[in-house]
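Milestone 3.1: sequence recovery, worked example.
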């Protein structure tokens, strides 16, 4: 079992920045996927940014050029640097880890979520 611990959310003015962190509770071997999703009130959870199993980084169109996803493998941690924040970025942000399991369905882990509020 893996636990994901998120931190870095909070309240910020429009145009400001926040940095989210997501740390896995134990060593995760390569070949997995980690990333961030978000869910605003009354809306479905959506992808924000993700490092795929192949190692590429994908961003939602709405955050391209403003958010940067990075990874520190030695620390089993991913970071989401969020700049030029907008009120529409307000949501609960969730970290997700996907660990392949051979021919079986992958293991999927979610963090508890961290609130990001952008005040106009």
């Amino acid at each position: 079992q893996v636990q994901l611990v998120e931190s870095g959310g909070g309240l910020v003015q429009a145009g400001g920045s926040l940095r989210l962190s997501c740390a896995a509770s134990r060593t995760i071997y390569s070949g997995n996927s980690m990333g961030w999703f978000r869910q605003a009130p009354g809306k479905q959870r959506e992808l924000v940014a993700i490092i795929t199993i192949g190692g590429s980084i994908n961003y939602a169109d709405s955050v391209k050029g403003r958010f940067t996803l990075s990874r520190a493998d030695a620390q089993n941690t991913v970071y989401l640097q969020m700049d030029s924040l907008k009120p529409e970025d307000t949501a609960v942000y969730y970290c997700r880890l996907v660990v392949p399991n051979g021919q079986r369905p992958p293991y999927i882990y979610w963090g508890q979520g961290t609130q990001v509020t952008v005040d106009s």
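The radius of gyration is 14 Å. The chain is about 0% helix and 55% strand.
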